[in-house]
Amino acid sequence: MNDENLVYDYRFNVVDEPSEWAFNWDYGECGTSRPTPREHHASMWMTMNVDDPIRATTSLFQQHGMRFGIELHVQNPTEDTDGNYILKVTSKRTRRVLMKGEMQEPDEGGPLNDPNVGHFCYFTCHTEAGFEMMKCIAENTSHGFCALVPHQEVEMMNDGGYRIVAVTGEGPDDHNENNGDNENSNDSDDGCGERGDIATRFTLFDGEEEVARCHMTYRDGSYDPSMGPTIEMIAVKQSRRGEGLAKVLWHHVLRFIETHFALECLNNDAPIGTIMVKAAQITLPEVEMRMTKRDKSLVPLGYKHLLYDYFGFSVREQKGVGAYMFASRRPKDEEAVLYIPLLSKEQLAKKRLTDKRNAPKPGDPFLRSKMGKRSCMYCSKVGMDLMRCAGCEVAVYCNSRCQKLDWKHRHKKWCNKTREELKELMIKEGAMMKLPDGTCSLNMSFGM
Q: Which of 127, 213, 289, 409 sits between 20 and 30 A of 43, alpha carbons compared?
């Protein structure tokens, strides 16, 4: 083990001091941090996991064109379009733009041609006519191959003074006021955002107080085109932790995904008939507290533990270009995946009828364990039922040998310490520099 591991562990494995909301909620990796709902705005994804996805898309829209009076226009990839096909759907009668979209060009023989990485096209609309057309296309496309997400604010739960509000949209500054409604807008930009600008923010309120939040985007930063929404942050307000609010919010986040993002994951390593939910930038801030069965005491619960130990996420092993992009010092368990059943419309309708009775209620601090696959902190092997360091409960290992080797060369320096407690050692060993203004900065060249 090299000295640089101290910097690495400080960044990714050492727990920070608890804070009110755990994360910087003004930051979004690939989607807007401030989703803004707008009338008649929506995003639509269509999977095209075939050898020639652009041909399949063209064929599909020829069928829709005869039925709905629309036409698909395709612009071939160029350097200016970052290698993407540019798509535009117009009305045959009025010639007005209804939808705009894009599709990534298949990479012949390259990393994007990995069979575990799917192809899809993405469309946006910003007009009433475009939104109505999107709904027609979604209703007439095979279930599991098309997802339509309106940019709107919806109340998902209202029970006993608690309510959950989901807000979906592009950022407040991502909209061009020319929305395609005027006669001269045929070839102009109708304000359709690019893939990645959209996000959904879920907020749990107790009366008027925000008590829990979840931020979800629709693309992660790994450049893996496998489709599935990405959980970027979920946290309970510090003063309200230990009331079971995280599991209440998560239950309704899953219901939202099942309903609005019913897109089957076609990766070879995914279970058949499932939706892929991803989580990115998984770190260790305290986001909730849980009650122990032994003595009924409340103990802190970090973001990583919440996802892997109680929500059932597993380490996401990168495929295609993602394997190249993430072949680095970033921890393997910084990205996770959860597969949930792709329910039919009939199954969703039945589930909604029983959901109010079966949904978790605020006030129950117990969390049922639901373990996913983790990676050994020493050898990076992925598996189930890994042993956990009793001191910090952060480090997990395949066996006692890996644990002993990691302790000797690395883990004993930071086990059960917070970032604040580790600063003195970091400065002493040269892994951190104290600046003239009294603040500290990591020495990223340490150990190199």
A: 213
The per-residue pLDDT for range 290-311, each reduced to its tens digit, is 998 888 899 999 999 999 999 9
> Do the beta carbons of residue 46 and residue 57 sit within 8 Å?
yes
- Distance (Å, whole) CA 300 – CA 242: 9
- In Å, what is the CA distance from 402 to each residue of 5, 143, 383? 16, 46, 14
Rounded CA-CA distance 3/147 in Å is 47
Rounded mean pLDDT of the chain? 86
Residue 53 token pair:
């996805």
**102-146 pLDDT, tens per residue?**
987 766 554 444 545 567 889 999 999 999 999 999 999 888 889
Calculate ∠ Cα 116-117-122, nearest 5°. Answer: 150
**Sequence-distant (≥ 6) Cβ neighbours of residue 253 within 8 angstroms:** 202, 214, 216, 231, 234
Pairing, β 274-279 against β 230-236 = parallel
215 Cβ partners below 8 Å, 6+ apart?
Answer: 25, 28, 33, 199, 200, 201, 202, 231, 232, 233, 234
| More confident of the two residues 382 and 239 | 239
Q: Tell me, what amino acid is at 408?
A: K
- Rounded CA-CA distance 78/408 in Å is 53
Backbone angles phi, psi at 69, to 5 degrees: 70, 45
> Does the pTM of the predicted model rise above 0.85?
yes
Q: Which neighbouring-strand residues pair with 210? A: 205
